[in-house]
Amino acid sequence: MAVLDREEIYSEKKINHTMKKHLKSILAVLITVFSMTGAYSQKKPKSIPVFSKAVYEGNDEVYENNPLGKDEFYNPILQGCYPDPAITRKGDDYYLVVSSFAMFPGVPIFHSNDLVNWTQIGHVLDRTSQLDVHDTGISGGVYAPDIRYNPYNDTFYMITTAFAGGLGNFVVKTKDPMKGWSEPYKLNFEGIDPSIFFDEDGKAYVVHNDAPAQGEELYNGHRVIKVWEYDLEKDQVIAGTDKVIVNGGVDLAKKPIWIEAPHIYKKDGKYFLMCAEGGTGGWHSEVIFVSDSPKGPYVPAPNNPILSQRYLSPNRQNKVDWAGHADLVLGPDDKYYGVFLGIRPNEKDRVNTGRETFILPVDWSGKFPVFENGLVPMEPKLKMPKGVENKTGQNGYFPNGNFIFSDDFTAGKLDYRWIGLRGPREAFISSTEGGIQINPFDANIKEVKPTSTLFHRQQHKNFSFTATMEYQPQSEKDLAGLTCVQSEAFNYVFGITRVGNKNILLLERTEAAGRGRNREVKSEILASTEIDLKKPVSLRVSAKGDDFEFSYSTNGADFQNLGGTVSGDILSTNVAGGFTGNMIGLYATKANDAIPVLE
Fold first, then answer.
1. Mean pLDDT, rounded, for 117-128
2. What is the pLDDT of residue 45?
């Protein structure tokens, strides 16, 4: 934030020591308040970009063609890259968490009283002491969080896996999710996707995905589910209590793959184990088992899977696919509901929005739960629980459907939708009178390092994102503008740099050939043009499905295209791989390597 030169304000020659102390105290308060509100601005170097406004607008046909009735709401409930949902309830309060990978802060957390209207209340992992992802690829970091409320000690637990920072599996806890979470307790087991279960007798258990014992792996994708007893006093699994409760999946003879994301529930004296099976892709599904004990043995239901879209026509309308990785909760109408991930591919069957959070009612009137309409093509809207009013997009509730999100960065607090990559936003942003300043790092978007970029998720197939920026690059190493990022190896950069004595706007495409560490990453400048920077410049990226366009305006009204129509293929998980969706960023760097050759 801005820092005043105190010596220009008061001098030893003009005021005595006592008065100086009082002024220092007053000044410190004023600096804090003004910095937080953006009301104070010290003159900044023009080589540091200031973004005065950003506008995201989504306009998908599915919402135009399916207007809501008074008793309806849209599905998914969280659009864009909000995957692997888990949910818990305390009284009338519901809390939902999702994966965040190498994004920072980590593990977005949402609150609701009715399962329809959701408010993001922050992030569970909002400190570097809780999360170190500074040197991991974008799809590393935090996977598949689980959140549970333990009524026996009135405490919330969030348990997850971090593929970075040496933490592995860990748990954090709190008495109140609105007030922040503890430092991590590292857990002594391998594997991924841990979940915690609190039994009525006060005992606790952890279940998770793991590899089969050494020498017992039968095929690629063969995994097991393990259970441990958990010591609530020490916040640690109890050594020697681990047991394999599912080997492979529902039917090992059929070689099921990637049994994962386990959750235990208790109903009518029985223990139910629900897991994802088939991998996060076209064969994804949800399956259920039952036992008389939390430690098994577990018997699969005869009607598995209880949720999947894998058997359906690939040409179905308003296609939702990859459904799975679910969690159950009792709703406000005393009916069960399940949250789960799914994707909505574009017209070329590519996934740019990433894996999103959906919800369906669950029929648990029989022995086993079944997702209502979870095995037939999903509809874009649902009936609300009785007595609920749809307030999405109003009064701070998270929007869905088609919507506009506009931010002039004067609110005094950064909206939770803005996130960093591999490090805190506070390390590179400052409030100024004109907007938000992004202080560039010596790293660019292609490096596996913390990047000075403020990201917003792509949440629609058809969208536009426009940012207004004031900037004067000083050299070829300076660049600021927009970036669209599926990963460090698959991205577009639409930014302004300086070549010789000219200010140049360029569009660069980066993509990798091959997989793994030996893949070859190539960057190509698709187009460039000299640009007038006497006034703020507006930069825009827009998409209609797979077709992306980048354009600019020097008067705030008339936009000119640069580079024509380009493919969003590299911004899809189909091409780029990984687990995220396209991230649109306000970007600055002092390590630019995109330098056009001027004629």
1. 98
2. 64
Strand 336-343, strand 356-363: pairing: antiparallel
Identify the helix (H) or strand (E) that includes residue 64: helix 61-64
Question: At 170, which helix (H) or strand (E)?
Answer: strand 168-174
CA distance 179 to 155: 12
| Secondary-structure percent of the chain, ordered helix, strand, coil, rounded to 5 | 10, 45, 50
Averaged pLDDT of the chain: 92
Condensed to tens digits (0 to 9), the pLDDT of residues 572-590 reads 999 999 999 999 999 999 9
Q: Give the per-residue pLDDT at 28.
A: 37
Residues 107, 116: Cα–Cα separation, whole Å: 20
User: Counting Cβ atoms within 10 Å, is residue 563 exposed (0-12), middle (13-18) or buried (19+)?
Assistant: buried
| DSSP β-ladder status, 479-487 and 435-438 | unpaired
User: What secondary structure letter does DSSP report for 302?
Assistant: T
For 348-371, the pLDDT digits (tens) are 999 999 999 999 999 999 999 999
d(CA 36, CA 186) in angstroms, rounded, equals: 34
Spatial separation of the C-alpha atoms in residues 99 and 107, rounded to whole Å? 6
Question: Rounded distance, CA 116 to CA 398, Å?
Answer: 10
Residue entry with tokens 């999702």: 98
Token pair of 61 as six digits? 């046909």
Cβ neighbours, 10 Å, residue 184: 22
Q: How many CA atoms lie within 13 A of 181 on its CB side?
A: 29
Q: Indicate the range of 222-226, 373-377, 513-517 predicted with least confidence.
A: 513-517
Note the pTM of the prediction, 2 decimals.
Answer: 0.91
14: confidence class by pLDDT, cuts 50, 70, 90: very low
| DSSP 8-state code for residue 266 | E
Question: What per-residue confidence (pLDDT) applies to 44?
Answer: 55
Give bridge partners of residue 324 from the DSSP assignment: 341
> 560 φ, ψ to 5°?
-115, 135
Helix (H, G, I), strand (E, B), or coil: what is residue 139? Answer: coil
State how far Cα 598 lies from the chain centre.
Answer: 39
Q: Where are the beta strands (DSSP E) in 311-380?
A: 321-330, 336-343, 356-363, 370-371
The Cα–Cα gap between 473 and 480 comes to: 8
* Contact of 119 with 94, CB cutoff 8 Å: no
**Joined tokens for residue 520:** 């070859």
Let me know: does 426 contact 434? Beta carbons within 8 Å: no
Radius of gyration of the chain from its Cα atoms, rounded to whole angstroms: 25
Percent of the chain exceeding pLDDT 70 equals 92
- pLDDT tens-place string over residues 427-462: 999 999 889 999 999 999 999 999 999 999 999 999
Sign of CA dihedral 427, 2, 540, 596: negative
CB 148 within 8 A of CB 196: yes
Q: Name, in order, each residue with C-beta under 8 angstroms of 425's C-beta and a sequence gap of 6 or more.
A: 104, 105, 414, 418, 419, 454
Residue 13 DSSP symbol: T
Residue of 466, 223, 263 whose CA lies nearest to 369: 263
